[in-house]
Protein backbone atom coordinates (compact mmCIF):
# COMPACT_ATOMS: atom_id res chain seq x y z
CA UNK A 1 0.00 0.00 0.00
CA UNK A 2 2.80 2.41 0.81
CA UNK A 3 4.20 2.04 -2.68
CA UNK A 4 0.82 3.05 -4.14
CA UNK A 5 0.65 6.12 -1.92
CA UNK A 6 4.14 7.24 -2.94
CA UNK A 7 3.32 6.63 -6.61
CA UNK A 8 0.11 8.68 -6.39
CA UNK A 9 1.90 11.57 -4.69
CA UNK A 10 4.75 11.41 -7.24
CA UNK A 11 2.19 11.67 -10.03
CA UNK A 12 0.79 14.86 -8.52
CA UNK A 13 -1.99 13.68 -6.21
CA UNK A 14 -2.62 15.86 -3.18
CA UNK A 15 -4.08 12.92 -1.25
CA UNK A 16 -5.11 9.28 -1.56
CA UNK A 17 -8.27 7.46 -0.45
CA UNK A 18 -7.77 4.11 1.27
CA UNK A 19 -11.23 3.04 2.47
CA UNK A 20 -10.87 -0.56 1.36
CA UNK A 21 -7.67 -0.93 3.39
CA UNK A 22 -9.73 -0.50 6.56
CA UNK A 23 -12.76 -2.67 5.68
CA UNK A 24 -11.63 -5.69 7.72
CA UNK A 25 -10.38 -3.70 10.72
CA UNK A 26 -12.19 -4.10 14.05
CA UNK A 27 -13.26 -0.44 13.84
CA UNK A 28 -14.96 -0.89 10.48
CA UNK A 29 -18.75 -0.80 10.36
CA UNK A 30 -18.78 -3.36 7.54
CA UNK A 31 -20.97 -6.40 8.26
CA UNK A 32 -19.10 -9.54 9.39
CA UNK A 33 -20.01 -11.20 6.07
CA UNK A 34 -18.27 -8.42 4.14
CA UNK A 35 -15.16 -8.59 6.33
CA UNK A 36 -15.03 -12.37 5.98
CA UNK A 37 -15.38 -12.16 2.20
CA UNK A 38 -12.67 -9.49 1.96
CA UNK A 39 -10.19 -11.63 3.86
CA UNK A 40 -11.10 -14.79 1.96
CA UNK A 41 -10.59 -12.88 -1.31
CA UNK A 42 -14.24 -13.72 -2.08
CA UNK A 43 -13.96 -13.62 -5.82
CA UNK A 44 -10.99 -14.32 -8.05
CA UNK A 45 -12.25 -11.68 -10.47
CA UNK A 46 -10.97 -8.19 -9.90
CA UNK A 47 -13.31 -5.59 -8.56
CA UNK A 48 -15.33 -3.72 -11.14
CA UNK A 49 -17.63 -0.77 -11.54
CA UNK A 50 -21.41 -1.22 -11.54
CA UNK A 51 -24.68 0.65 -11.16
CA UNK A 52 -26.67 -2.54 -10.43
CA UNK A 53 -27.23 -1.97 -6.72
CA UNK A 54 -27.75 1.75 -6.28
CA UNK A 55 -27.99 3.38 -9.67
CA UNK A 56 -24.71 5.18 -8.91
CA UNK A 57 -21.40 3.95 -10.22
CA UNK A 58 -19.57 2.05 -7.46
CA UNK A 59 -16.77 -0.51 -7.34
CA UNK A 60 -17.23 -3.95 -5.82
CA UNK A 61 -16.60 -7.64 -6.17
CA UNK A 62 -18.36 -9.09 -9.18
CA UNK A 63 -21.23 -11.44 -8.32
CA UNK A 64 -24.37 -13.04 -9.75
CA UNK A 65 -26.69 -10.16 -8.85
CA UNK A 66 -24.45 -7.63 -10.55
CA UNK A 67 -24.19 -9.76 -13.71
CA UNK A 68 -27.91 -10.55 -13.89
CA UNK A 69 -29.05 -6.96 -13.38
CA UNK A 70 -26.56 -5.61 -15.89
CA UNK A 71 -27.53 -8.28 -18.43
CA UNK A 72 -31.20 -7.34 -18.05
CA UNK A 73 -30.21 -3.75 -18.79
CA UNK A 74 -32.94 -2.20 -16.67
CA UNK A 75 -31.05 -0.11 -14.12
CA UNK A 76 -32.92 2.85 -12.67
CA UNK A 77 -31.14 6.07 -11.71
CA UNK A 78 -30.23 6.74 -8.08
CA UNK A 79 -32.09 6.77 -5.65
CA UNK A 80 -34.71 4.54 -7.32
CA UNK A 81 -32.41 1.58 -7.97
CA UNK A 82 -31.05 1.90 -4.43
CA UNK A 83 -34.58 1.75 -3.00
CA UNK A 84 -35.53 -1.12 -5.29
CA UNK A 85 -32.57 -3.29 -4.22
CA UNK A 86 -32.48 -2.36 -0.53
CA UNK A 87 -34.44 -5.36 0.76
CA UNK A 88 -32.46 -7.73 -1.44
CA UNK A 89 -29.16 -6.37 -0.09
CA UNK A 90 -30.30 -6.60 3.54
CA UNK A 91 -31.65 -10.15 3.11
CA UNK A 92 -28.47 -11.24 1.32
CA UNK A 93 -26.34 -10.10 4.25
CA UNK A 94 -28.66 -11.71 6.83
CA UNK A 95 -28.69 -15.00 4.90
CA UNK A 96 -24.98 -14.77 4.02
CA UNK A 97 -25.68 -14.95 0.27
CA UNK A 98 -22.55 -13.43 -1.26
CA UNK A 99 -23.96 -13.70 -4.78
CA UNK A 100 -26.61 -11.11 -3.93
CA UNK A 101 -24.90 -8.91 -1.33
CA UNK A 102 -23.34 -5.61 -2.29
CA UNK A 103 -19.67 -6.24 -1.69
CA UNK A 104 -18.04 -2.82 -2.12
CA UNK A 105 -14.30 -2.90 -2.48
CA UNK A 106 -11.67 -0.79 -4.18
CA UNK A 107 -8.87 -1.89 -6.43
CA UNK A 108 -6.69 -2.57 -3.38
CA UNK A 109 -9.02 -5.31 -2.10
CA UNK A 110 -6.34 -8.03 -2.24
CA UNK A 111 -4.22 -6.00 0.19
CA UNK A 112 -6.89 -5.91 2.92
CA UNK A 113 -5.78 -7.17 6.34
CA UNK A 114 -7.58 -7.70 9.65
CA UNK A 115 -5.66 -5.29 11.87
CA UNK A 116 -6.70 -2.34 14.00
CA UNK A 117 -6.85 0.90 12.03
CA UNK A 118 -3.93 2.39 13.95
CA UNK A 119 -1.69 -0.52 12.92
CA UNK A 120 -2.78 -0.21 9.30
CA UNK A 121 -1.85 3.48 9.34
CA UNK A 122 1.50 2.75 11.02
CA UNK A 123 2.29 0.06 8.41
CA UNK A 124 1.26 2.40 5.61
CA UNK A 125 3.48 5.23 6.84
CA UNK A 126 6.42 2.87 7.35
CA UNK A 127 6.03 1.38 3.86
CA UNK A 128 5.69 4.82 2.24
CA UNK A 129 8.78 6.11 4.06
CA UNK A 130 10.79 3.05 2.96
CA UNK A 131 9.77 3.45 -0.67
CA UNK A 132 10.44 7.20 -0.60
CA UNK A 133 13.89 6.60 0.92
CA UNK A 134 14.73 4.05 -1.80
CA UNK A 135 13.81 6.60 -4.44
CA UNK A 136 16.06 9.16 -2.87
Secondary structure elements and their pairing?
Blueprint: H1 2-10, H2 32-39, E1 48-50, E2 58-60, H3 64-72, H4 80-94, H5 117-135
Helix pairs in contact: 1-5
Q: Overall 3D geometry? A: elongated
Work out the number of β strands. Answer: 2
* Percent of residues in beta strands: under 5%
Strand order of the largest sheet: 1-2
Considering DSSP H and I runs of 4 or more, what fraction of the residues is helical?
40-55%
Q: Kindly, what is the distance between the CA atoms of the first and last residues, rounded to a whole number of angstroms?
A: 19 Å
Radius of gyration: 17 Å
Structural class: mainly alpha
What sequence of helices (H) and strands (E) makes up the elements?
Answer: HHEEHHH
Mean pLDDT: 93
| Largest sheet report | 2 strands, antiparallel
Number of helices: 5
Segments where pLDDT lies below 50 for 5+ residues?
none
| Multimerization status | single chain
What does this molecule look like?
By secondary structure, the chain is mainly alpha-helical. It has a domain of 95 residues. Helices cover 44% and strands 4% of the residues. It has five helices and two strands; from the N terminus they run H-H-E-E-H-H-H. A two-stranded antiparallel sheet has the order 1-2. Helix 1 crosses helix 5. The longest helix is centred in the C-terminal third of the chain and has 19 residues. The protein is elongated.
